[in-house]
Design a protein that fits this description.
Layout lengths: L1 H24 L15 E7 L6 H9 L5 E6 L6 H6 L6 E5 L9 H12 L4 E5 L3 E3 L3 H11 L4 E5 L1 E2 L4 H6 L1 H10 L19 E5 H7 L11 H11 L4 E5 L4 E3 L5 H15 L4 H15 L1 H4 L5 H21 L10 H16 L3 E3 L2 E3 L1
Parallel strand pairs: 1-2, 1-4, 2-3, 6-9, 7-10
Antiparallel strand pairs: 4-8, 5-10, 6-8, 11-12
Helix pairs in contact: 1-7, 1-13, 7-13, 10-14, 11-14
């Protein structure tokens, strides 16, 4: 037990060190960031049944100085196409998606079609649930140029509205900031390959060099695969947090968070059932067990307190605030069990489609 408590405390010390490092160095988009020389830019939005979100996110897209804004309707059964068609901005164009070929994930096929239709030399992909504030595109380009990135992505500020979302969604930021020191992106380390498909910006030459979304046609976690492929091809990756300029509410409750995170979890664990099981067991041991064994030694108490501190550091860096969420940390691993069980299935269902 002493060895285990020491291992758990050591894990938290390493993660806390990563968070402290990134608190100082991880770039954050901010108003006033700009740089000259932005190429002709295409904002590209794949949309499937997004009638409930587009009325809130389209105004932010239209507030950006992009030369064109393309929204692809990917077989929606709601009013997605009507909402886009009803906007008068001449830069905004609605594309009707073609039937999805065998072997393609729906989003990847939609993004492939958007690239074919785009005329820009900077291709900025955005999910339909991402909200941009004025100045966001200028800040994206400023950071992409500053980091000399061929492929650049942004982790939006995560908005949460329910207890279930607050239990699960903050793990995205906490894992990024705890385990990927931003400085690694400047080193020739292929494993330091992360991207976020919610906002993913390519120089067109880089996009074509890696083969675009056709190169990851069947990958359900396409952003991670695109990052890995970019690294293998010798391209420079860049990352930033969205700050006040880029935000999103990915899910609308616990069940949708379980489905959404579960569809990506298997790929993030190398497709291995054993790794998934070990990951769940370790997170339970690292975040829940220390509170149950508080009286059993200083190692457990150190681990328990650091687990709370990590959430506070992560929320402070992203600007989410909500520091009281730290009280949920001991319950996060049990709450994530359905996510792991979803990942253990051989199929994933998303946007009404089933994928193996």
């Amino acid at each position: 037990m002493g060895v285990l408590s020491a291992a758990v405390a050591g894990f938290h010390l390493v993660k806390s060190a990563g968070l402290v490092s990134n608190a100082r160095s991880f770039p954050v988009l901010a108003r006033g960031q700009s740089a000259p020389g932005r190429p002709r830019t295409s904002l590209l939005v794949p949309a499937r049944d997004e009638a409930g979100r587009l009325p809130y996110t389209l105004p932010g897209l239209l507030a950006q100085p992009a030369e064109e804004i393309l929204v692809l309707d990917d077989g929606s059964t709601d009013g997605t196409a009507d909402i886009v068609a009803g906007c008068a901005d001449p830069r905004l164009k609605l594309i009707t998606g073609a039937p999805r070929p065998d072997g393609w994930i729906g989003k990847n096929w939609a993004c492939h079609q958007l690239a074919q239709a785009a005329t820009g030399d900077l291709l900025v992909y955005l999910d339909a649930d991402v909200t941009l504030r004025p100045g966001a595109l200028d800040a994206v380009w400023a950071q992409q140029r500053r980091q000399r990135a061929d492929v650049f992505s942004v982790f939006p500020r995560q908005q949460t509205g329910t207890l279930g979302e607050r239990l699960l969604v903050p793990l995205i930021d906490e894992n990024l900031l705890g385990f990927l020191p931003h400085q690694l992106l400047d080193l020739p380390i292929r494993a330091a390959a992360v991207a976020n498909g919610q906002l993913l910006s390519f120089r067109r030459a880089a996009y074509e060099h890696i083969g675009g979304h056709a190169a990851v046609a069947g990958e359900i976690v396409e952003d991670l695969e695109l990052a890995r492929l970019s690294r293998r091809k010798g391209l420079k990756l860049g990352l930033a947090l969205g700050g006040e300029l880029v935000s999103t509410r990915m899910y609308d409750g616990y069940r949708s968070a379980v489905r959404g995170l579960g569809k990506s979890m298997r790929a993030a664990h190398g497709g291995s059932d054993l790794v998934l099981a070990a990951s769940f067991a370790w997170n339970l041991t690292a975040y829940t067990v220390p509170w149950l064994l508080w009286r059993r030694g200083g190692g457990w108490r150190v681990a328990a307190v650091l687990g709370l501190a990590e959430r506070v550091l992560s929320n402070a860096k992203t600007g989410r605030g909500a520091y009281a969420e730290a009280a949920l940390v001991p319950f996060t691993a049990p709450a994530a069990l359905p996510v792991y069980l979803t990942a253990l299935r051989r199929t994933a269902v998303w946007k009404g489609r089933e994928y193996r």
